[in-house]
Amino acid sequence: MPSLTGTPADGTSFSVVSLAEVPDIIPTLAEWLYHQWGHLQPDDSVSRRVQALQERLDVGRIPFTLAAVRGHTPLGCASVVEHDIPGRPDLSPCVASVFVHPSYRKQGVGSALMERVTTQAFRLGYERLYLFTWDQERLYRSLGWETMETAPYRGDRIVIMRRFRT
């Protein structure tokens, strides 16, 4: 899979690549993901996250993960998995674990990751994708996602969204 290159306003470029191209960043990404969402699953750990990422190297099937990198520096990642929406196994496949390190936010990294993971999933023949978010509905809407519904989750509200292949 060829990399997608982006250049934010500061002029520095980054690439979105298959995680298989940069497996050495898996421990860093696993740590970031665990610290962001590990509290949601009592059996979660950094090592479990490492194992999950190692199972997502093949972009020719779901699950897969893409990474945004600047040289050898990880900026963020995004995955496509079979199921990710709490209580909604009927909504599949899902974009999941979209994370950009705080130092690299507001530079187009998240948008590039989202565009690339959806494009790859659609190339695999899927007609629609789903995701859920607590706080990024506006960003996802700007990228062509539509809100389906809101739902309660652990004392909070999540927004469930979908995007169709065009």
Structural features, described:
With 166 residues, the chain is of the alpha+beta class. The chain has one domain: Gcn5-related N-acetyltransferase (GNAT) (Aminopeptidase), CATH 3.40.630. The chain contains four helices and eight strands. It has helices at 26-37, 46-54, 109-123, 137-142; strands at residues 4-6, 14-18, 64-70, 73-81, 94-100, 128-133, 146-153, 156-164. It has a five-stranded antiparallel β-sheet with strand order 1-2-3-4-5, sandwiched between helices. Helix 1 packs across helix 2 (46-54). It is globular and about 40 Å long. Mean pLDDT is 93; it is low at 6-10.
The parts where pLDDT drops under 50 for at least 5 residues are: 6-10
CATH superfamily: Gcn5-related N-acetyltransferase (GNAT)
The general outline is globular
The separation of the N and C termini measures 21 Å
CATH architecture: 3-Layer(aba) Sandwich
Number of domains: 1
Report the portion of residues in β strands.
Answer: 25-35%
Number of E-type strands: 8
Q: What series of H and E elements makes up the topology?
A: EEHHEEEHEHEE
- Number of contiguous helices: 4
> Largest sheet, order of strands side by side?
1-2-3-4-5
Radius of gyration: 15 Å
- The top-level CATH class is Alpha Beta
CATH topology: Aminopeptidase
Derived structural class: alpha+beta
Major sheet attributes: 5 strands, antiparallel
**Proportion in helices:** 25-40%
